[in-house]
Automatic annotation (TrEMBL):
PANTHER family found in the cross-reference section: CYCLASE-LIKE PROTEIN 2, KYNURENINE FORMAMIDASE
Transmembrane segments: none
GO biological process: L-tryptophan catabolic process to kynurenine
Disordered: region residues: 1-20
Organism: Conexibacter woesei (strain DSM 14684 / CCUG 47730 / CIP 108061 / JCM 11494 / NBRC 100937 / ID131577)
Molecular function terms from GO: arylformamidase activity
Amino acid composition bias (Low complexity), ranges on this chain: 1-16
Name used for this protein in its record: Cyclase family protein
Lineage, opening ranks: Bacteria, Bacillati, Actinomycetota, Thermoleophilia, Solirubrobacterales
Length: 264
């Protein structure tokens, strides 16, 4: 195993800076597996991703003649792990996932440090302070990432059920005013390391106002939720960011891989 193979903490391959011509690319995604926290803990309708082995080289489970490869079948709630909400998720006049222009999935932007504890809303002043302290700014056309530190609480219920429920139901997040601050800056997409863009106070465990969802989606700004992975390593930097989901027709949301490369 070489130094650039696997970073043990996150289980993510380290950037391959030893190859000429390659960028330093960081993976800001959570792992996608069966042991995932998910919505509907609160209604006792917990729905983890379900994986079925469709075909395997040993011939299972379809019979001995299916030895040509390893194929799985997966079913999951679209709002699982690192995923993006399309504006249509909350607004009848919002764009479905396939209608979101591609320029919202690839671009530049700052990854801001906004440390928050459980149930704490992010204010517009928090975002201004994060910019001032890092020397970063938010520009029209930016994809903005927010690191509250909450991603460090991520775990599956198989690992620690209480912590998994806490991760889903007590998260910090945006409020209407901080969402409107970002919209006024002309951003194209926002990303956060909590499982919902709204602070839990505005989710079904709180007042169900979904206020930042509505504020963002009124302007067709998609919300990437559940950042994780190597997020800390690019926080405080301006990056080239890729966050494209599957082109799911009439989709409300879909998991995605978020990649970031710090700009010089
Ligand atoms: Zn979602």
């Amino acid at each position: 195993m070489t130094a650039s193979s696997i970073s043990a903490a996150a289980g993510i391959a380290a950037p391959s800076t030893d190859r000429p011509g390659t960028r330093e690319v960081y993976d800001l995604s959570l792992p996608f597996r069966r042991d995932m926290p998910s919505y509907y803990f609160y209604e006792n309708r917990y729905q983890p991703p379900m994986f079925t082995v469709f075909s395997h080289k040993e011939g299972t489970p379809l019979g001995p003649e299916t030895k040509d490869g390893y194929v799985t079948h997966v079913s999951f709630l679209t709002h699982t792990g690192t995923h993006v909400d399309a504006p249509r998720h909350f607004r009848d006049d919002g764009q479905y996932l396939h209608e979101v222009p591609a320029d919202r999935w690839l671009g530049e932007g700052p990854i801001l440090s906004v440390p928050k504890e459980e149930m704490e809303p992010i204010t517009a002043e928090d975002l201004e302070r994060a910019c001032a302290e890092s020397g970063l700014d938010v520009r029209p056309g930016d994809i903005v990432g927010i690191n509250t530190g909450w991603h460090r609480r991520f775990c599956g219920p198989g690992e620690d059920r209480d912590q998994a429920i806490e991760y889903m139901e007590r998260n910090p997040g945006l409020s209407r005013e901080s969402a409107e601050w970002l919209v006024a800056k002309g951003i194209v997409t926002v990303m956060i390391d909590s499982p919902a863009i709204d602070c839990a106070r505005f989710m079904p465990y709180g007042d169900s106002s979904f206020q930042s969802h509505y504020a963002l989606f009124a302007e067709n700004v998609p919300a990437v939720e559940g950042l994780g992975g190597q997020l800390d390593e690019v926080t405080g930097k301006r990056c080239l960011i890729s966050c494209a989901p599957v082109r799911y027709e009439n989709g409300d949301a879909f998991p995605l891989r978020v990649l970031a490369s710090p700009l010089p």
